[in-house]
């Protein structure tokens, strides 16, 4: 593995992939973006990031845009940022970039992504990254970064090692704050404590986060869902104190009128990341006979609303 | 009380009041409609009912349209069909029509309406009527009646008597099928078993009834909410066997792609009948420590969506 001058591939350059890939390219790394829709715009005009931490642009010669995975180079660091609704294509989109010592970091939402990648490419290659960031794609090749940006990074099998720390260094040196996790599952479930209520209720009610925490009824809905996720996680040995709920709500207050990705999916008529964020946690709850009526109700309602063609 | 040639007043002539009032006028009764929005159209052109049982029209000289309660005559039979969201105006809208032996039948949704009317006008005057009917107002003075039409009628205080039977006769003779209930509370809760899931989920998800019962996830949502209403009713001595749930679902299959009144409220940006249909049953559940997480979640989500100015 060459993580001195790593070749980076970003698989699925929507808002998350576009933003983090742009940060790495901004700091001198060779970054290859596998894009669908906006490839020609990015090839022609590069990438523009409007960020609360300072705007920046990357001219087309500073990035490598690919419309097909076949042209990707063998890569040292592969960031997986496609939506989980496209997970049936995961292997074909990544395989061309994989070599013996590739590190594959899935930054996708929810549960089950590391497991799927481990089946295809071997558990030893896989890491998980959780992005805590407020970003939206605002146009072709254009990203708006309104707040935060932390990545929490963990190894899928075993604890952190030299590779983990080196990736974190690369990210930190590229204005991407990165924390290394001792326990990836803990990080995944911690993110779900936020995503389950805010992405779910945000999409269902078409309300931004500030509206969800701006009334007693909204707070009650959010808190109960969070409690159920905390309780479900405990069933698989991932423990949180209940104070995390208040912490997450206070953190959400800093985010303003934030539209979660699932609320945007709803507005755009795109499929929801239903299984990764709600279906798999609910399956864990059911397997362990945890009582999670709110989570189940939310899942069923989102399924009814979902226009998606996600394979289940 | 003169229920031989009764003077009928319909307080709030939307779809329900317009339809039932029109049936009574069609069969020769003197019917006074208190209307808000569509009064001038009805005064000019009368009422038109497109019904699966045969269309009919009433010319303006066959109905009495009032824009203010002050001009209502003292009435033998008063049908209350305003939305519960206007219940703060209930007394002023009805009082002019009330005389010593008026029978006041509230056909409004949910819980608490008989109690409120009893406070104003005395319990002995009050009856409750549950309409099982598929109707929508399709234009000024125009009602579409697509299915059903039954009214279940019960006395608020005590069991049915001569008055109850006479009102039922009047209705039955006017092509309005009417059943007399021994126990009004039983009827109210039975209607809630349907309204709580279908009006609630229909508004929340903006889905017609056929869509709600057309998938496993929809049926699961509907059944669990019905179970919670059945369980809550048992706490106040109103008992149903669980087979009622399947009966209600089978009945719903006969209704086609029906938009509930609350789904229409949502589409029109009108306030929901939040307290009558969900808030009061939930309060009963809480008072008796019944565990009703789905009902509570539904109530909180509807409150978040509600654009209304309903006083709570």
Task: Describe the protein's topology.
2 copies of one chain form a homodimer.
Chain A: E1 7-11, H1 15-26, E2 30-34, H2 39-45, E3 47-51, E4 56-58, E5 64-66, E6 77-80, H3 90-94, E7 103-106, H4 113-121, E8 126-139, E9 142-155, H5 162-172, E10 178-180, H6 184-205, H7 209-212, H8 216-235, H9 243-253, H10 261-268, H11 274-287, H12 293-305
Parallel strand pairs in A: 1-2, 1-6, 2-5, 3-9, 6-7, 7-8, 9-10
Antiparallel strand pairs in A: 3-4, 8-9
Helix pairs in contact in A: 6-8, 6-10, 6-12, 8-11, 11-12
List the helices and strands of chain A in order. EHEHEEEEHEHEEHEHHHHHHH
Radius of gyration of chain A using CA atoms only: 19 Å
Largest interface: A-B, 23 and 23 residues
Total count of helical runs of at least 4 residues of chain A: 12
Low-pLDDT runs of chain A: none
User: What is the 3D form of chain A?
Assistant: globular
Counting copies of identical and different chains, the oligomeric state is: homodimer
Roughly how much helix do the residues of chain A carry, as a percent range? 40-55%
């Amino acid at each position: 593995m060459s993580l001195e001058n790593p070749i980076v591939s970003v698989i699925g350059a929507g808002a998350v992939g576009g933003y983090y890939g742009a940060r790495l390219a901004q700091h001198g790394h060779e970054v290859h973006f596998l894009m669908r829709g906006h490839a020609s715009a990015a090839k022609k005009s590069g990438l523009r990031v409007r960020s609360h931490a300072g705007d920046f642009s990357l001219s087309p010669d500073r990035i490598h845009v690919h419309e097909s995975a076949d042209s990707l180079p063998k890569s040292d660091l592969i960031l997986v940022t496609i939506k989980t609704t496209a997970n049936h294509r995961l292997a074909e989109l990544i395989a061309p970039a994989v070599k013996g010592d590739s590190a594959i970091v899935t930054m996708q939402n929810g549960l089950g992504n590391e497991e799927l990648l481990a089946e295809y490419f071997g558990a030893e290659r896989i890491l998980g990254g959780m992005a805590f960031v407020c970003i939206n794609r605002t146009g072709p090749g254009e990203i708006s970064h309104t707040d935060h940006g932390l990545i929490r990074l963990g190894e899928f099998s075993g604890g952190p090692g030299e590779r983990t720390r080196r990736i974190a260094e690369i990210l930190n040196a590229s204005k991407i704050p990165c924390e290394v996790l001792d326990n990836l599952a803990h990080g995944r479930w911690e993110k779900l404590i936020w995503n389950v209520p805010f992405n779910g209720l945000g999409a269902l009610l078409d309300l931004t986060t500030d509206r969800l925490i701006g009334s007693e009824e909204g707070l009650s809905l959010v808190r109960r869902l969070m409690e159920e996720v905390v309780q479900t996680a405990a069933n698989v040995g991932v423990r949180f104190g209940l104070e995390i709920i208040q912490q997450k709500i206070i953190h959400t207050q800093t985010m303003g009128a934030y539209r979660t990705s699932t609320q945007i999916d709803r507005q755009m008529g795109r499929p929801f990341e239903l299984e990764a964020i709600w279906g798999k946690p609910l399956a864990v709850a059911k397997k362990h006979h945890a009582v999670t009526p709110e989570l189940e109700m939310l899942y069923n309602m989102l399924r009814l609303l979902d226009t998606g063609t996600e394979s289940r």
